[in-house]
Design goal:
single chain, alpha+beta, Creatine Amidinohydrolase, 4-stranded antiparallel beta sheet, 3-stranded antiparallel beta sheet, 15 strands, 26% helix, 25% strand, globular
Length: 254
């Protein structure tokens, strides 16, 4: 399938939805504390998103019942909100995709619950650096595989593994579009990037082995195969005439 090149008008619509998704993650910072459940966090997210005239893309998607994915500790991605009570020292990923006026914005970030260990902090900060390095490879004429190459080089250098069973994706007019964006790839591989392409980069970095296992009970929650920690950051980006813009980077974190 061809990669959709967005028009300036479409990019502006995607930008507004992306900004709302980012604002939602910022809003949630005050609630991520020991004692709250991941289901309670999800309920706060849905209320906030709907107050701004948007809807959560995950709710009803392939039967998914919640407004976000919330992934603590060894959960790699697609964590289903439930009765788990956050504990001091946990690390937590919240992934939100908004639909605003028909346009999609997709982003996720890590949170510290109380005081994290140095071990956990290093993993989280390295994962954020992986996203930053992947974004730095995005410019017209470059190969998409360079994103995954840069991410995997940095992760491996720091002693971590890169999840290969899940990847980034095109986004904007639909929840998932072409292209797939692998986070581990050969240099100068993959399609050529062109101005107007919109996709997510969302590296999932594991402290142990790269493999995942999906919870049989809920059919969604993906955990590390060895029970060790995992971290993830995600931005929706657009290729510009001279590089890229992270549409979900409202607060200048990158």
């Amino acid at each position: 399938m061809a990669i959709n090149i967005k028009t300036p008008e479409q990019i502006e619509g995607i930008r507004k939805s992306s900004q709302l998704a980012a604002q939602t993650l910022k809003y949630m910072e005050q609630f991520v504390k020991p004692g709250i459940t991941t289901l309670e966090l999800d309920q706060i997210i849905e209320k906030y998103v709907r107050e701004y005239g948007a809807s959560p893309a995950t709710k009803g998607y392939r039967g998914y019942k919640h407004s976000s994915c919330i992934s603590p500790n060894d959960v790699v991605c697609h964590g289903v909100p439930n009765s788990y009570v956050l504990q001091d020292g946990d690390i937590l990923n919240i992934d939100v995709t908004t639909i605003l006026n028909g346009f999609y914005g997709d982003t996720c970030k890590m949170y510290y619950v109380g005081k994290p260990s140095e071990y956990a902090q290093k993993l989280v900060e390295t994962t954020k650096e992986c996203l930053r390095l992947g974004m730095a490879e995005c410019q017209p004429g470059a190969r998409l595989g360079n994103v995954g190459y840069a991410i995997s080089e940095h992760a491996h250098k720091n002693g971590y593994s890169v999840v290969y069973e899940f990847c980034g994706h095109g986004v904007g007019l639909k929840f998932h579009e072409e292209p797939d964006v692998p986070h581990i790839a050969e240099k100068n591989s993959g399609p050529i990037l062109k101005e107007g392409m919109v996709f997510t980069i969302e590296p999932m970095i594991n402290a142990g082995k790269a493999r995942c296992k999906v919870d049989r009970k809920d059919g969604w929650t993906a955990r590390t195969i060895d029970g060790r920690l995992s971290a993830q950051f995600e931005h929706t980006i657009v290729i510009t005439s001279d590089g890229c813009e992270a549409l979900t980077d409202v607060y200048g974190d990158f």
